[in-house]
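Exercise 7. Predict the structure of O-methyltransferase involved in polyketide biosynthesis from Nonomuraea angiospora.
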Amino acid sequence: MMATPLPALTPLQDTLWLTLCGRALDNRLPRPVLGDRMADEIVRKVGYDYGKLHIPSSSALYIAHRARKLDEIARRFLARHPDAIGLDLGTGLDSRALRVAPPPTAAWHDVDFPEVVAARRRLLPEDARPHDLAADVTDPAWLDGLPTDRPAVIVADGLIAFLSLEEMIALVNRLIGHFPTGEIAFNGYSRFAVWAQKRVAVGRNVVDVSKFPGLDDPREPERWHPKLKLVKEVLMTREPEVAGFPAWLRLMNRLTAPSAALSRKGNVVLHYRF
Ligand SMILES: C[S@@+](CC[C@H](N)C(=O)[O-])C[C@H]1O[C@@H](n2cnc3c(N)ncnc32)[C@H](O)[C@@H]1O
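Solution. The predicted structure, encoded as tokens:
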């Protein structure tokens, strides 16, 4: 069978393969952390050569693990606010709506550049992409079509590395100005992670398009807008799923977990409310 042709994407948009392949590789493990079958299906459908991305098994697990945490945050919010708007910013080819399963009263929007939205329409089934929104999240007008009177849960998985600090602060301000109340969660990048990205094979795939300087203090975003309050800094080394990791990775996590400073340098999900 002929593989479906790859969509034509810019280097920035192309970063979506890293996270998609990470989740696909996790899905192939005997005990996946996330079990994202759709990611696996797309990678197979296009015959993507993930070998060229040099994704170590630890990175695949970390990508899947943080996606799972962001899913949980969205799911919990939607259970409390069934009328909410859900937003996945920089969604790539992710089918988070399938995993989160928003109630029918909620509205789930996946946001990415028009070229990525076109690729989603080609590669994802309709139920995996309830409402695609083609936009650059740094554009001041991109939220204009969305209701202003409903609570919102906003997740961004692998996006903030590609925004400058100023763009990130402006985005957060725009979201808080638009919705009456809600939660924002994203995977964090420490200054160390930004530094290390240049030095490991998997990081070199994204380094040319990365802009974020790194964030070491989870309370720093509270200074971006007075309404923004930290709910939790999720240090992944301390999360229960680590118990299912392979022995060597479990050991590394166990050694790191007692130190917040060390854990913070690795896989982190930052969760805020407003
Ligand atoms: C590393 S990928 C992550 C994709 C997806 N969240 C996932 O976990 O598979 C980063 C994504 O952010 C998108 N992106 C980067 N900057 C963006 C912007 N300014 N506006 C909209 N999307 C953006 C890229 O097109 C890409 O799809």
